[in-house]
Amino acid sequence: MKVTYYGHSCFSVFAGGKNILFDPFITPNDLAKDIDVDLIKADYIFLSHAHYDHIFDVERIAKNTGAKVLGNFEIYNWLLKKGIENSYPINPGGKVDLDFGSAKCVTAQHSSSFSDGSYGGIACGFVLTTADGNFYYSGDTALTVDMGLIPKFTPLDFAVFPIGDGLTMGIEEAVEASKLTGVQKILGVHYDTFGFIVMDHQRADQKFKEEGLKLYLPSIGSTIEL
């Protein structure tokens, strides 16, 4: 599967013949200043929770591309008010069949609110199955033993975990999450964007290597195969 990293927790996966985008936060991110948001392709957009650093560019990209946008019920209602009618509500425990495969919504341990302070619904992660492989995006979360249930239902080719610490898992917790989910390949996200989540890249790489795991930290705008 081809994975393109757009900075922070925003990435896209080309799988099942579709461009699947996650948590679009690009234009306010100085580290992603060279990314032209209007050139991003998306058939689907998944939103893990309502914090602005995960939804800032969704309205613009959704209206540019006509992508179907999926998020929790509160986000779904917010999208409708924004005029994004091609949206779909999905909460933890829910699963939906789509033309690339399927998407299962799972629990994430994190807060969720819109920029005005209103309730943003429960934070989520997503498990996607496609003709080209399966993967898990945890969203912003703490380490939970629930992660161990995921491979019981879906064998994974890779996982996407936050590793910047502070507001989410750090390096050591992400290593344990990798073990729980049975993955060998991990895309790290949610680091370096803000001062309080700046990460030691060398230390992160070493910790994963010690456990026989491969951590990917691609440069912003680059595409890798996973």
TrEMBL record:
Q: Which PANTHER family does the record match to this protein?
A: UPF0173 METAL-DEPENDENT HYDROLASE MJ1163 (PTHR43546:SF3), UPF0173 METAL-DEPENDENT HYDROLASE MJ1163-RELATED (PTHR43546)
Known SUPFAM superfamilies for this protein? Metallo-hydrolase/oxidoreductase (SSF56281)
Spell out the NCBIfam families in the cross-references: PRK00685.1
Q: What name appears for this protein in its UniProt entry?
A: Metal-dependent hydrolase
Which residue numbers delimit the Metallo-beta-lactamase domain? 7-190
| Keyword terms, alphabetized | Hydrolase
Q: Does the keyword Manganese apply?
A: no
Q: Does the keyword section mention Metal-binding?
A: no
Source organism per UniProt: Flavobacterium psychroterrae
